[in-house]
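User: Could you check the structure of this?
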Amino acid sequence: MELIYKVHNNLYVNLTNKCPCACTFCLRQNTDHVGESKSLWLEKEPTADEIIAEFANYDLSKYDDIVFCGFGEPTEALDVMLTVAKYLKNNFKNKLRLNTNGLGDLVNNRKIASEFANLIDCVSISLNTPNAKEYHDLVKSKFGDKSFDAMLSFAKDCTKYIPEVIMTTVDTTISKSDEAQCQKICDDIGATYRIRAWVD
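Assistant: Sure, the predicted structure tokens are below.
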């Protein structure tokens, strides 16, 4: 199983294949790999010890960020992610980033942003669109209509505990007018807005 893979000069951690969404633009609908990986489909959910052991194969001083992001939503494996993040913080100086759909509160049935304090340096949240209906049409969350507001609430919570909060949309999925509305949402929340390429 590929638990760690390289994209540009960052290492990505493939924690899980579980995800509450079925986004229309998700890369895993069309490919089995990202960056220098071969296949990000997992045979089983890895343990924290298995992931930590994989880091012995890399010289972390040669990489910039370590990113929790694979073929699933990282907060579906929250306890494993937090354990790995604590190990990395205690032993290395890399910036730790979480790429998430922002539905971790719904996944875990509690507010989770405070658990990232002093562990996660940056969180990148998929905003996707400025309104709830379009959001649901795009991401097809199993949590339904409450997903959009839950994602915004999570983002706002993150600004209290995480130094850098980014919210993103994909450049091929919404209009320039929608992008302007997304910018306002991010300004109100206190997050940085980023428009990313479909293949990033």
